Amino acid sequence: MKYRKKIRNSALTKQEAQIAFGMHAVAIAAIGRMSAIAANVMLSPFVLVNAVLEGVIKGLDKTEDAVLNGALLEKVERELEDILSQENPEAFKQLEKEISDAFEIQAKRFEKALSNIEVNPDRSDDFLKIINREGLALDRLGKDYLLHSSHGDLFKKAIVLMDSCINGISTAGSIYLINISRVGQFIGGSIGKTLSSYDYSHEKSENFVATAYALSYIFQEFRGISVVLLKKLFSDVIKSAYVGALEGALAPSAEQLKALEDISLKVSLNDIKEFANLAFQDFGNAYLAAQKKFSKYDKALEEEGMTQVFFLNPLKAEDERTLRGRQALLTREKYKPVASALTTVKSGIYAGKAVAAKNAYRASKKVVQTAVGAVLKAREKLQQSSHREK
Amino acid sequence: MSPDKPSESFEMNVDRAIAELQLAFSNSETKGTVFWAVLLLPDSEINTELNVKAANKLQGIFANSQNKLVENTLRNLRYLRDECLADSDVKLKIEKAKADAIEQSAASVAMNRLRRRASEGAGRRI
């Protein structure tokens, strides 16, 4: 409402005000968009686990044709055990002993690794703390489990481990975050393939980010690999979100640009900035609160060497150049409002990491619609006035 | 003894056969442990008969289900049995596969047991 009031009180024509408002609305939408991505991912460990599981399952689907039906196979094996026990009792006893010994070893290993886990599932803000505190024990579990196994069944093992995460969350109310570092590459390949098939448009960015975050935990031990991979992933995420925000919502089409060019905009840059400031004030408190809330998360990312990648310098040099080029195009007086809005979006994206705003995302959809509507109306009026002049 | 006549696109080798069996058996809690065990039995009439029965059981219970995969599994089993009896290196590989299957099976059982306990004791230390 503040913006509408400001617009009403300004010296702008209605058409100009609509455009100005539209541009800022889109800027806010972009902030909201990024905020929502950040908030969704950071606040929900369930998203992380599910994203990984989804990736693994998709990878598994490809091998499904090579796996015999488990229930039928167990039936075969039970009957075979009976046959073996009757026809070669010695061999059967030997096998029974080997299985029994192996079970004792595994049970002790699992008991030991899981003995210190106690997590309150309602404290999702303690997610990171849980990882840090319990990660070592779980990491050991994962390593032991995977190091002593053959390579043919790694996907299935990953499913077992991840399934235990889900199971723990949903039933015991505990979070078993198992660092499956040794199988990281294998799963990463699967997820990577899944990711590569994702639509890079901003609509899909949340999945993308969620999976990327999930990967960051899986790959804790493969720092060399993970940093390289994550740099690329994060860079792509930011790029896609950024380009999506710009091209999908903000950047006017060539036709719209032409329309804007034809309008002698009298809108004051200061007015635009003021609108932007008002917009940011609304997010200010959320920003500070979220910053505090996510400080632990930031710290962990920093330890992973990823802060620079994701938050502080998300865009690669060439992207920066593209952006500067785009902005240079818009430095002419007529385009200043657009350039200002672009700057706002850029600032918003940088700031957006800390704006925990699922609601902002929901609101942003409406804001985008409003913005697009404003631009279209402006265009329509322009056309009408153009016709009248003729 | 040579395996069943392979298809033109299929080149039989021990590592591949083991890997395929491991994957094929991976969805059961027992991980094909008994199959590996009977493959390793010393050469004798009764043990040969046991291997044949193992193959027949698989074919019988999977009748009309996953035919192509069952056929491939049987081919791999027959091939590995022959190679195991003829080559001690192959025998070592199969022993390793058997040990892995036992360990995976034990781990799977242990995990399931823990999972059940976790379900029963929601909110408690497990």
Q: Please, how many helices of chain A?
A: 17
Structural class, from secondary structure content of chain B? mainly alpha
Rg calculated over all Cα atoms of chain A = 27 Å
Secondary-structure element series of chain A = HHHHHHHHHHHHHHHHH
- Biggest interface and which pair forms it? A-B, 54 and 61 residues
Main sheet record of chain B: none
Strand fraction of chain B equals under 5%
Q: Please identify the structural class of chain A as seen in this structure.
A: mainly alpha
User: Per DSSP, what share of the residues of chain A sits in E-state strands of 2 or more residues?
Assistant: under 5%
Spans of chain B of at least 5 consecutive residues whose pLDDT stays below 50 are 1-10, 118-126
Percentage of residues in helical conformation of chain A: over 70%
Termini separation of chain B (Å)? 53 Å
Overall pLDDT level of chain A: 43
Number of strands of chain B: 0
Q: On the 0-100 scale, what is the average pLDDT of chain B?
A: 78
* Biggest sheet descriptor of chain A: none
Percentage of residues assigned to helices of chain B: over 70%
Determine the N-to-C terminus distance of chain A.
38 Å
Oligomeric nature of the chains:
heterodimer
